[in-house]
Amino acid sequence: MAARPRKKKNINLPEHVYYDPRRGFYRIRLIDGRFRSLGNEREVAISIAKEYNRIARPKVAIAVESLLESGYMPDEKPFSTYVDSLLTRILHEEQPSARVAQAMRNDAKRTKEFFKNIPGGDITLHHVNDYLNELHPDATAEVTNRKVGWLKKIFSYAIDESLMDSNPATLKKTKRLDAKKRQRLKPEWYQEIHAAAPLWLQTAMDLSLQTTHARLEISRIRYNIKDSSNKICGCLWFKEPEFTPQGKIYGTLYIHRQKVAKKEAANVAIPIGESLKAIIERSRDNLISNYVVHRLPEKCPSVLGKDVSHLTQLAPNYINRTFSKVRDEVGCCNHLPKEQRPTFHEIRALAAHLLGRQGIDPQSRMAHTDAKSTKIYMKNHIEWVEVPYAEVKIS
Description:
By secondary structure, the protein is an alpha+beta fold. The protein folds into 3 domains: 8-70, Double Stranded RNA Binding Domain (2-Layer Sandwich), CATH 3.30.160; 80-171, Tyrosine recombinase, N-terminal domain (DNA polymerase, domain 1, Orthogonal Bundle), CATH 1.10.150; 187-386, Orthogonal Bundle (hpI Integrase, Chain A), CATH 1.10.443.10. The chain is built from 12 helices and 8 strands. Helix 3 (80-94) packs antiparallel against helix 4 (98-114) and helix 7 (187-196) packs across helix 11.
């Protein structure tokens, strides 16, 4: 009678080894017909079974001694041999952001070095632990979990290409993350920092509060755009104001949120009412610039940063650093440790809180990907999420 074929997930188990799903452990049939438990760790069970079959069933498994005597060694290339090709496939299929892609390249370099003498089929949970202990001994729980995630990812691609039978990184227990340490920005702190900030930073803060968007999008807002077809952050003004029950609408501020660029909620169309119009008009000075948040640097850089396309445009990191500097000079948060003091990004959370207090759902305005809101379709087929008219009141 022919043996019943194995399930797909168990097809790579050694002969005479079986998985008992009811009890959650592996068993091996001994040569006398009895069964013995091998525990619930797949890698350990496979290792024990291979060694038992080698000794007790020489016809099933080729003896290592005979291979050594004949001078033949298994043709198993080190895992490092395949890392570059696996990384290329990951980048091609997943299309990560530039920042994530660079992190993957750095991880791939470490992986190649660590597994330069270890075949993929021999990698176990012990190697995963050694990898973390050697390369990331003092990493935080968040970083450790990211590194485990990287190993899970590259091992899963290796399994797909038949370079490994199982993924030992999935056996690694992730670390518990600490609760968020950074404190939320209180309205009174916002007002103290705003009062002491230079005009360009006040403009950035006010735009972030009214739009609920972060420093990157705020730094890209232009005074005028011709249309919304190029996914550029900027203002498209009406020829004449439109009257609504909530007040006058002077145009639309289009925000393209890069962090969720591939999601349908990434493109947000925000009505420009009195508050936004006042912020934009107040930002104008004697400096000629296309950007609402602008300043002339004290020294002209030889090369513009990657997030900057004009000399007068503010880099997102500079906005954040200046906000933190003014915050500390004002002293409103000096009673908190530095790692707990709110940054510019916390204005987003403050805006969401204030909108919620006014009975307005901030989700679509913030470009969250599961937002439920009105969608408008442009002639060029770019999809925008049109949010309701609203003004954030901080006092």
